[in-house]
């Protein structure tokens, strides 16, 4: 209950306080390239329920859920505005909408697409999906430059499946073990600090 109240309070205040920034982002996206402001993609949420996540669009517009689902290095699909949004993580601010809707939390395991959730070991799958997915967590902070890491691999898909995904799952399981309001506040502050340092 306390966690959900914290989510509602901070997400609601965030949307109000940041509304000028959100409107500026939306305008920049529309002026930079044709297509919608938001990118919607199917992700797997709490107890395995699928939902469509909100993100500010950072790539050229294409039919939903088509093309590679990994972003590697300087992906040619990324727009000029999109590159800035990704570098500063501002594209994730749209997920405050998902927090208000109740499909996500401010802090929790990052929601994955179904094809990668299918690779989760059974025990970890049940554990990680026992809580609402979040905008940030231990894994999000540790792997904030994931696309750069994958760009160094000769086989990014294999590296993600065999190296990155297991490491992220271990960190997400750690979050579930330590979940609580104080942990959430600590991770929110660490996330803000990491963004500001960039």
From TrEMBL:
It holds the Pfam family Bac_transf. The keyword Phosphoprotein does not apply. One of its GO terms (molecular function) is phosphotransferase activity, for other substituted phosphate groups. Keywords: Transferase. Residues 3-196 form the Bacterial sugar transferase domain. The keyword Transferase applies. Transmembrane segments: none annotated. It comes from the Bacteria. Belongs to the bacterial sugar transferase family. This is Lipopolysaccharide/colanic/teichoic acid biosynthesis glycosyltransferase. It comes from Sphaerotilus sulfidivorans.
